[in-house]
């Protein structure tokens, strides 16, 4: 699979763009394909995958789904939400959507002219990355700087969170800007599995995580006067209920 991706890439339009030194700001030095696993699989349509590889992939994905579900439970615990909140929010009518992007970033003769993959955040939920164990390239943007992520040894899974986790967590978990740099000395393989919401899932911040809103400041001050030296959490919760019309503020 590595060889097929590499050979077809050097004959592609992307490689010709670099040879002619045309504008490469809108292309990625990447060859990839996508496999769907849930709610339905498309592996039968990929004729270049052997039966043994498909079987191994099914077993691998089953374990990754368990890992993603466990991670989602831990996130919910950290957010003080019910443990299945993210899983249920992702489920829609057919359960979460799971797919794998297999990408090859071939050895690049002029890495200063092109990105392996341009800067972006991931659209979905929890991303589980099995990356190359020798060739670097992945970088994350943190505190105003690009941080290099070294190759993963011993089949270590690298975890990233996407835009939908940021929305559901009301910004507590961020989807981080990242990119892949082209490399002059080697070809990098990336196998990223996405545990995403179903296409018909309705996404919104968990109500429990929202700050109170649409309240009158004078009402807040009345409550604050009697609770100033107490924790602000219960104060916010009471203001939520008041602003939503659930009860009348009494102090």
TrEMBL record:
Annotated coiled-coil segments of the chain: 57-84
InterPro entries noted in UniProt: IPNS-like_FE2OG_OXY, IPNS-like_sf, Oxoglu/Fe-dep_dioxygenase_dom, Plant_2OG-oxidoreductases
Fe2OG dioxygenase domain sequence ranges: 94-197
Iron recorded as keyword: yes
Domain of life: Eukaryota
EC numbers for this chain: 1.14.17.4
PANTHER family to which the protein is assigned, alphabetical: OXOGLUTARATE/IRON-DEPENDENT DIOXYGENASE
Record family assignment: Belongs to the iron/ascorbate-dependent oxidoreductase family.
Name of the protein in question: aminocyclopropanecarboxylate oxidase
Organism (species): Liquidambar formosana
């Amino acid at each position: 699979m590595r060889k097929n991706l590499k050979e077809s890439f050097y004959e592609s339009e992307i490689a010709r763009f670099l040879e002619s030194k045309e504008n490469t700001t809108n292309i990625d030095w990447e060859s990839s394909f996508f496999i769907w696993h849930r709610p339905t699989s498309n592996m039968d349509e990929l004729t270049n995958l052997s039966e043994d590889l498909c079987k191994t992939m099914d077993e691998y994905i089953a374990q990754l789904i368990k890992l993603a579900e466990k991670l989602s439970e831990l996130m919910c615990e950290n957010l003080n939400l019910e443990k299945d909140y993210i899983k249920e929010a992702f489920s829609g009518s057919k359960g979460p959507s799971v797919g794998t992007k297999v990408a090859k970033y071939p050895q690049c003769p002029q890495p200063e002219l092109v990105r392996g993959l341009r800067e972006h955040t991931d659209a979905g939920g929890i991303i589980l990355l099995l990356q190359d164990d020798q060739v670097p390239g992945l970088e994350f943007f943190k505190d105003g700087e690009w941080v290099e992520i070294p190759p993963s040894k011993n089949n270590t899974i690298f975890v990233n969170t996407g835009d939908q986790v940021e929305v559901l967590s009301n910004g507590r978990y961020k989807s981080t800007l990242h990119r892949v740099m082209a490399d002059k000395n080697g070809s990098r393989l990336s196998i990223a599995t996405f545990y995403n919401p179903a296409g018909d899932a309705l996404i919104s911040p968990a109500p429990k995580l929202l700050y109170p809103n649409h309240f009158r400041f004078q009402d807040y001050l009345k409550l604050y006067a009697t609770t100033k030296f107490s924790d602000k959490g219960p104060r916010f919760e009471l203001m939520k209920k008041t602003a939503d019309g659930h009860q009348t503020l009494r102090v």
